[in-house]
């Protein structure tokens, strides 16, 4: 049994999956206090499906970029589950890559202050590394990758399809204590 957790961008996404079959999912948007609800939602999902935490074999989670607290919530849950179940496997993936899925996408997250986190993905492969850019540079990327779809701030993404199609691209973390949230520093 696999669990996907994404709390990086004011949305709570939980997916229970087994052998590429979706068992259950929770998607709550605009959650300003994800840390207050995530454990209750996870417990409710497990109870509803008659599952115990020990029955989860792998956790897949987004590790940013995203809101400071949001990024840490998902990673902390993955680390805690690993402590409770030492045989648990923990996988991570950039939230920009998750948003892009396996499509040709300019993946954007509003970083506030007229800045954006951006990643360019072609068929799920990173073409230009995730980075923080000033809003002024955005048009340059749009011109360069004009035939790519623009996805921004997790709006209108098929999170279940993106998870399933990217599952093999998540990175296995042998030492969960070394998992760090992604905070992209300005390249300028």
Automatic annotation (TrEMBL):
Superkingdom field? Bacteria
Which is a GO BP term held by this UniProt record?
tRNA threonylcarbamoyladenosine modification
Q: Domain Gcp-like: where?
A: 35-127
InterPro entries named in the record: ATPase_NBD, Gcp-like_dom, T6A_TsaB
Listed SUPFAM superfamilies: Actin-like ATPase domain
- Which named protein is this? tRNA threonylcarbamoyladenosine biosynthesis protein TsaB
Source species of the chain:
Spiroplasma chinense
């Amino acid at each position: 049994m696999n669990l996907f957790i994404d709390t990086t961008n004011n949305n709570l996404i939980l997916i229970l999956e087994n052998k590429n079959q979706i068992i259950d999912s929770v998607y709550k948007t605009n959650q300003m206090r994800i840390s207050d609800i995530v454990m209750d939602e996870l417990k409710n999902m497990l109870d509803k499906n008659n599952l115990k935490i020990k029955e989860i074999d792998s956790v897949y989670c987004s590790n940013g970029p995203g809101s400071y607290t949001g990024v840490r919530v998902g990673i902390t849950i993955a680390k805690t589950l690993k402590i409770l179940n030492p045989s648990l496997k923990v996988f991570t993936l950039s939230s920009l890559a998750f948003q892009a899925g396996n499509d040709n996408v300019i993946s954007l997250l509003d970083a506030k202050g007229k800045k954006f986190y951006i990643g360019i993905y072609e068929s799920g492969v990173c073409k230009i590394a995730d980075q923080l850019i000033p809003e002024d540079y955005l048009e340059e990327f749009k011109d360069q990758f004009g035939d790519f779809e623009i996805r921004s701030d997790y709006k209108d993404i098929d999170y279940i399809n993106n998870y399933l199609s990217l599952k093999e691209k998540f990175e296995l973390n042998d030492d969960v204590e070394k998992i760090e949230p992604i905070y992209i520093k300005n390249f300028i």
